[in-house]
Amino acid sequence: MKTIQNNLKNEIIIKNSRFITEIIKVYEENKVKEYLEEATKKYPKANHYCYAYRIQNRTKSSDDKEPTGTAGAPTLNVIEKEDLNNILIITIRYFGGIKLGAGGLIRAYTKSVTEALKQAIYQELTKGYKIHFQVSYSEEKLMMRWLNKENIIEKKYEEKVDLVAIIEEKDMEKIQMLPYEILEEVIIEKSS
């Protein structure tokens, strides 16, 4: 399983239609709407804003008024075939006056996505867990030694120290003696 290191953009022309594909690294489904709105502002006169994503192993696709199954599904097919995760692909189409037919649209959207991915540098992903810890103030230093600073995503000082961290599956044995609660399984970038 992998993702892209950097966001990508590519453009191709097929039978006078302009296909602009943006590939975006994303970790939360609630960000998708934001990226789609951004695309409609950047390309306000486009005819279609088709997309597919796979984020934390959850998938969705949209043909955005193209015939059913001709844009979003082929994009999602490429994502799954390439074993990509934490990725959103939006293909913006400016209609060029020549109808492509269902088969032609499937080939066009697939080609647009595939061409954009040729630029990609990939980052390996692995399974991990979002974990909640509650430790005393005296245990905090020990906890911080076991956790990398970049793994901690939330820290609150209350009656005890509340920490939320992302831990790779391979590192779970390091924390076995600590009190923790697994909040959810996540897909994260593999550490070296």
Structural account:
This protein is α+β, with helices and mostly antiparallel strands and 192 residues long. It has two domains: 2-120, Impact, N-terminal domain (Ribosomal Protein S5, domain 2, 2-Layer Sandwich), CATH 3.30.230; 126-189, Alpha-Beta Plaits (2-Layer Sandwich). The chain contains four helices and ten strands; from the N terminus they run E-E-E-H-E-E-H-E-H-E-H-E-E-E. It has helices at residues 32-42, 72-81, 101-117, 140-146, and strands at residues 2-4, 8-14, 17-25, 48-55, 58-62, 87-94, 122-135, 152-157, 161-168, 180-189. The strands form two sheets. Strands 1, 7, 8, 9 and 10 form a five-stranded antiparallel sheet that branches. Strands 2-3-6-4-5 form a five-stranded antiparallel sheet, with helices on both faces. A hairpin with a 3-residue loop joins strand 8 (152-157) and strand 9. The longest helix has 17 residues, at 101-117. The mean pLDDT is 92.
Task: Summarize the SSE layout with pairings.
Blueprint: E1 2-4, E2 8-14, E3 17-25, H1 32-42, E4 48-55, E5 58-62, H2 72-81, E6 87-94, H3 101-117, E7 122-135, H4 140-146, E8 152-157, E9 161-168, E10 180-189
Antiparallel strand pairs: 1-7, 2-3, 3-6, 4-5, 4-6, 7-9, 7-10, 8-9
Helix pairs in contact: 2-3
